[in-house]
Write a structure and sequence with these properties.
9 strands, Rossmann fold, two-stranded antiparallel ribbon, alpha/beta
């Protein structure tokens, strides 16, 4: 399926991308404070390396439930072979922070609770397989909890939110990490490929240098880090098995 000769990956069929704003290539413009799609996204960098068409159906704010809806909407126009890179969990694990701010003592659930997240992701994977496509699950890039807290709590009651978090923004990091950590087992269970794009960030001396000021979106430097990891690890995963040496 994959040929990495001459420094160029080639895959039979189309590459399909399903995910949220990270795989959409959304970054925060540090000068004007607006979210924009960067031409240097890891998907764009990947597309420049592959010999196949890359079609990105990712959407800002998408959860895995939205991913299912997108697949259903476009399924009749999708190819019958190729890879589907999927990147979900960042929005699924998030909370409705204004509600938390109003009543921190109430029970608050994430947008997609873990059990339902895994159920829906499993369903998405099997629907992808039914289309003859090969699912590849991406882990979540890490977030910068302090920056993210500062971003979403600007107009909220920070004390109430911090009370809900147990007095530390590290709770946000651990919660997001739990969703990412559930993906390798899901990939193994469903016979899918898994690519860890989180580790390259964590191996940096200053991971925050690769994340936008909002604390949750990789910046262009971060996208280059992801692209490098995907290309290297996908090559290792899908490279043809070497032929056995003659006896």
């Amino acid at each position: 399926m994959l040929d990495n000769r001459e420094d160029k990956i080639q895959i039979q069929g189309e590459w399909l991308i399903l995910g949220d704003s990270v795989s959409k290539g959304i970054v925060l413009n540090e000068e004007n404070g607006r979210y924009e799609k960067t031409p240097e996204s890891f998907i764009s960098l990947l597309a420049a390396r592959v010999g196949s068409t890359v079609r990105d159906l990712s959407m800002f704010g998408a959860t895995v439930q939205k991913g299912l809806a997108l697949l259903q909407r476009h399924k009749d126009k999708l190819p019958k072979n190729g890879l589907v890179l999927m990147e979900f969990g960042g929005n699924d694990c998030d909370f409705l922070w204004p509600q938390v701010s109003e009543d921190p003592e109430a029970e608050h659930l994430p947008n997609v609770p873990m059990e339902n997240f895994l159920k829906l992701y499993r369903e998405l994977i099997y629907k992808v397989k039914e289309l003859g496509l090969t699912p590849v699950l991406l882990s979540l890039p890490p977030l910068d909890a302090e920056r993210y807290f500062t971003t979403f709590s600007q107009k909220l009651n920070k004390d109430n939110v911090m009370n809900f978090l147990g007095g530390t923004t590290a709770t946000i990091y651990r919660w997001q990490e739990a969703y990412s950590a559930a993906l390798p087992s899901l990939a193994l269970e469903t016979g899918s490929y898994f690519l860890d794009i989180r580790q390259p960030f964590l191996l940096q001396r200053h991971p925050e240098d690769f994340i936008c000021r909002d604390g949750i979106h990789p910046n262009e430097q971060g996208h280059r880090l992801i692209a490098k990891a995907v290309i290297e690890r996908l090559s290792n995963l899908l490279a043809p098995e070497p032929e056995p040496e003659p006896a």
